[in-house]
Design goal:
alpha/beta; 9 strands
Length: 196
């Protein structure tokens, strides 16, 4: 079975565009087969981005882990006039993210990276819609290890569904972070985690 967190160079390409509008932001994203939520912006990612945008913080250095075609990181970078680094293991996702950075005129760079293996900087915001189907070890790895790449006052924000272990994940993280559920909608939890 093909997953969006694997590479299949033989998968037929069917390029499409997805438009996104939020307040005065108007963005267009290229997507393709083999990517997560290839036909529309998924509800969890949209909820995460729009919840962050309602906060008073103005983040300047953003890391998007498991970026897919780059919706979350690019949208926040555009809104904040920030720099963004976007990482994924899926080469097709990274190619489209580069295209979407250019098309939407943001200051961004793309890294092929299994979680943080090729990440060397620190960020005031790390965001992720973690790949639940990749398994708990991967999800916890993304969330736990973010701490090593946050600035002292940096924040990790992520989205997770209630029925995919939101409460146990938050309990797990509470030993390392100060966690807060900032938003809940349609079974999705938006969680902010800060360094203790």
């Amino acid at each position: 079975m093909e997953h969006y967190f694997t590479n299949n160079p033989n998968l037929k390409s069917e390029l499409r565009t997805i438009d996104y509008t939020y307040q005065d932001l108007n963005l267009t994203f290229y997507s393709d087969n083999g990517l997560f939520s290839k036909d529309k912006i998924d509800f969890g990612s949209r909820l995460l981005v729009e919840t962050i945008l309602k906060q008073e913080n103005k983040f300047q250095h953003i890391l998007d882990v498991g970026c897919g075609y780059g919706f979350m990181g690019i949208t926040l970078a555009k809104a904040y006039n920030a720099t963004v680094t976007l990482v994924d293991v899926n080469k097709r996702a990274l190619h489209l993210t580069e295209k979407n950075i250019f098309h939407n005129h943001v200051d961004g760079k793309v890294l092929e990276s299994n979680m943080y293996t090729n990440v060397t900087s620190t960020y005031d915001l790390i965001i992720t819609n973690p790949p639940i189907r990749a398994g708990k070890n991967i999800v916890y790895g993304i969330l736990d290890d973010a701490l090593n790449y946050l600035t002292p006052n940096g924040e990790l924000w992520f989205v997770i569904r209630k029925d995919q272990g939101a409460k146990s994940t938050i309990e797990h993280l509470n030993s390392r972070y100060l966690c807060a559920v900032v938003e809940k909608s349609k079974g999705f939890y938006i969680v902010r985690a800060k360094n203790r």
